[in-house]
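Before a colleague's protein record goes any further, I have to sign it off. Would you go through it and say whether the fold makes sense for this chain? Take the sequence as given and treat only the tokens as open to question. The record follows directly below this note.
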Amino acid sequence: MQCSTKITTILAIALIAMMSATTSFAIEKRSYSDFGDLENGKKIFNDGKGDVPACTGCHGPTGLGEDSMGTPRLASQGFNFLLKQLEDYASDKRTDTTMFIMNVNAKGLSPQDRRDVAAYAASLDFPMTGSDLNALEELGQKKGVRYLGKSLAQYGAPERGIPACHSCHGYNGRGAFPIYPRLTGQKYVYLVTQLKQWRDGTRKNDSMGQMRKVAVNLTDDDIMNLATFFTSTSETTLGNSRVPPQY
């Protein structure tokens, strides 16, 4: 009887493992070309289209963003999230505070162009390296305290109405697509700027107003601490290097 139970348990575990492997393969074999024309997206990203300049001019040749310009990393961000931002810029639901540059650019692209650019940017696969905080500090940029940012990201501060960032954005902010973007490896300056804009209400295209409700309770120190943690953290652990496939 005991032997039979062990065999049943082993077979059940094997079946679950087979099902997991099959499911994983089914998800991972999906291509970003399912979402848009990658060649057209690449051309617009690198060369622009009409009056719309190349994305590389502000976001860098590999889409990793530029602290000096306050632009975000686009590479490996979720397709659906990137597309939503482009659509929100095009419809003025989100406002680019740098001379409306993104609003003008998004409006200059067709709906299909916006899909293609979002698909191409999402397909760019580079290590989750964020900002060089020491270099930024030398330039006069104040940085936060990493362990305090990590604590706030993992556990929040319920007594101040701040939930854990991980509860929506996933482990170390690696993203919970299609709604919640990747924060891991995002540029420090961009993270600080966006959290402050969520806090003061100048950015308001969040789903159900979630970010505004959270950010209103963040201090300047909280914001710098979180940005310091997310720009310098990893999306995996030493014990598990696999990142769930997301889009």
Summary: Residues 1-30 form one domain. The chain is about 50% helix and 0% strand. The CA atoms of residues 198 and 211 lie 6 Å apart. The two ends are 47 Å apart (CA to CA).
